[in-house]
Specification:
This protein is 31% helix and 17% strand. It contains nine helices and ten strands.
């Protein structure tokens, strides 16, 4: 497994990540008509979007973290972390082609956690194969890599940022069991009682106890609901934030559904199987290969990017790829502007 150390500004990293996408497109899709002018225009737009969002975050209300006038660098804060206690948090971010969100997520979360004096390591688990996105399997891979260095984890969506200082990532929140920070009362979109997605913290021993997440969920949705079944079956007590008065404004939700369509396609009996408790797959059956590892520094905030290729067992989940005849019927995402 190769290990690469890189330091970039957010703008330069966007350019390089876009070039990586082009390489993968050529490898997997045989893309022949790459337009350099369009690429340059896309990079220009990304830079403008990053600048605009940084301004919005800086102007946010009283519950936003961040005294942006603070002179102490994020790197200095990270060096102080050795004195912040015995526990260390792994932030596990399943990822694919979400570069704008990544540029915001890593510096924002590093600063947030540093201000709470929480020892932490941010892992971006990037799915680089041609299969459908599998959030649960990527989290399983992130756990396997991080468990030797961290004693609790946060399964964290890249497009969800906490904006209330009272939300804690400290180890004591998982003392009684899994801690669902993005609770139905606080998440901007999902409000059903058994929802445990968005941001969920767990001790490593509890994640091991439930055998991680199911690997059978290819495409978008329902892997969190199956995890709820696992935790309930293991009789783990799920806790949520109390005393938070900011309601549905508690988080920034960066997802743009018009530009990033969810893969909601259901193939064969996939929909029926997605409502069942998966007894066959989990942490101990995830099939993967880490092709390379990058240590990145995004605007002073460190993170590790794991470039992962997943393997599909088609005897268990034949829906890990969308058949050609079905693919033709799937609406294409809206063009990026």
């Amino acid at each position: 497994m190769a290990s690469i150390q890189v330091k970039f500004s957010a703008s330069n990293l966007v350019i390089i990540l876009l070039m990586m996408v082009i390489v993968f497109m050529v490898m997997f899709n045989g893309c022949d008509n790459l337009d350099r002018d369009n690429l340059a225009l896309r990079v220009k737009h990304l830079r403008e979007q990053l600048q605009e969002k940084e301004m919005l975050l800086a102007r946010a209300g009283q519950h936003e973290i961040g005294d942006h006038k603070e002179r102490k660098s994020l790197r200095d804060q990270a060096e102080d972390s050795e004195n912040w206690g015995p526990h260390k948090l792994a932030i596990l971010v399943p990822f694919r082609d979400r570069f704008e969100e990544l540029m915001e997520f890593v510096p924002y979360m590093h600063k947030y956690l540093s201000r709470q004096r929480i020892r932490h390591h941010i892992y971006i688990i990037n799915q680089m194969d041609h299969l459908r996105f599998n959030r649960a399997s990527l989290i399983n891979v992130g756990y396997i890599v991080s468990k030797k260095d961290c004693d609790y984890i946060a399964m964290h969506d890249v497009d969800l940022l906490p904006r209330n200082n009272d939300l804690s990532y400290r180890y004591d929140v998982v003392n009684e069991g899994p801690y669902h920070m993005a609770s139905p009362e606080l998440h901007p979109n999902y409000h059903y009682a058994k929802f445990v997605g968005g941001i969920l913290l767990m001790k490593t021993e509890h994640f091991q106890l439930v055998n991680g997440l199911s690997n059978s969920f290819w495409g978008w949705g329902r892997e969190d609901d199956e995890l709820y079944m696992r935790m309930e079956e293991a009789q783990l007590k799920i806790t949520r934030p109390v005393g938070i008065t900011t309601g549905f404004d508690t988080f920034y939700h960066l997802h743009n559904p018009a530009r990033r369509k969810r893969d909601m396609t259901r193939v064969g009996n996939q929909k029926k199987e997605s409502f069942k408790r998966d007894k066959k797959t989990g942490l101990d059956t995830v099939l993967y290969d880490i092709r390379s590892t990058q240590e990145l520094d995004i605007d002073g905030a460190p993170c590790t990017v794991l470039h992962v290729e997943l393997t599909c067992d088609i005897t268990i989940t034949p829906w890990c790829e969308i058949p050609k005849e079905v693919r033709k019927q799937v609406p294409k995402p809206a063009p990026k502007t």
